[in-house]
Amino acid sequence: MAVDSRVTLKIFDVLGQEVMTLINGNYLSGSHKVNFDASGLNSGVYVYRIDATGIDGRTFTATKKMILNK
């Protein structure tokens, strides 16, 4: 992240229902890693969305598809 930001990272199933929130908090600028424990999820297609609002007022949103194989 370029600046300090309020960040949320959520996982959704193919029906659009939220199944997990991985991040919900403030993060300093720089690179970060997140551990994703999918032991409670079934194999299948999921969507993840990251939303970030920087202290400078700029926003970033990205939505991507992922396949979970167990």
Backbone structural class? mainly beta
What portion of residues is helical?
under 10%
Low-confidence spans: pLDDT under 50, at least 5 residues? none
The whole-number mean of residue pLDDT values reads 95
**How many domains is the backbone divided into?**
1
Shape: elongated
Strand order in space, largest sheet: 2-1-3-4
Gyration radius, in Å: 13 Å
Main sheet? 4 strands, antiparallel
What does this structure look like?
With 70 residues, the protein is mainly β. It has one domain. Strands 2-1-3-4 form a four-stranded antiparallel β-sheet, with no helix packed on it. β3 and β4 form a beta hairpin. It is elongated, with a radius of gyration of 13 Å.
